Amino acid sequence: MEPHSWTLSVKEAIALQKTLAAQVRIRPLPTGLKTIGAADISYSRHTNLLIAVILSLSWPGLDLLESVHYVCKAAFPYVPGLLSFREVPPLLEAYRKIREKPDVLLCDGQGIAHPRKLGFAAHLGLCLGIPTVGCAKSRLCGDHDSLTLKKGSSKPLLVSGEQLGLVFCSRDGVKPIYISPGHLSDIASSERLIAGCLRRYRIPEPLRLAHLEANRLRAEVENRISEAGCRKSGSG
Predict the structure, then answer these.
(1) Is the pTM of this model over 0.90?
(2) Which domains does the chain have, with CATH numbers?
């Protein structure tokens, strides 16, 4: 899909979500994956900058192959349920830098487990035309039965009675994560992929690495701006 205009009001963004949600396709992830990507965003409150990071890793070994990023001013306000309008544009720019495109992209956010079935992962996948999977640290909407905190256990995540994802325990005794398909993926294959990405931590390894890199770059950008400000002040 050709990216749409990102210069929208909140009302227009909500209306567009409803239209785009009908274009999301739910189907099993492709077999024979060779590379997977991981996307994350870090926000600098001090500078109003978004740092978009995409990593590419081998599958199933999860060796880092490539890391790209893009930095820009936040152009859309922080509105729960509309984060994709804030975060997808810089990630599209970062994705253009990747030499070898990943077979599937993991996203630190919701897929279709969203009030209008178009969370960050679903929106990004639709714009890129590639399979995406959402894996969030917190729940945006929906209900689920009580979950035993045993690695590998899961419960359906229901929104208005429809299963749109899973609540999934990635480590014994820790808070669960929330898995939902983005675009060109489904619940079962998304769960298998996330399970295969788990290592020592609660968060799947590709997303953990992307998060660390985004935060590292944010600190680097903030330090650079701070140092430039000090030099300018001193020159006066």
Answers:
(1) yes
(2) 10-235 (3.30.2170.10)
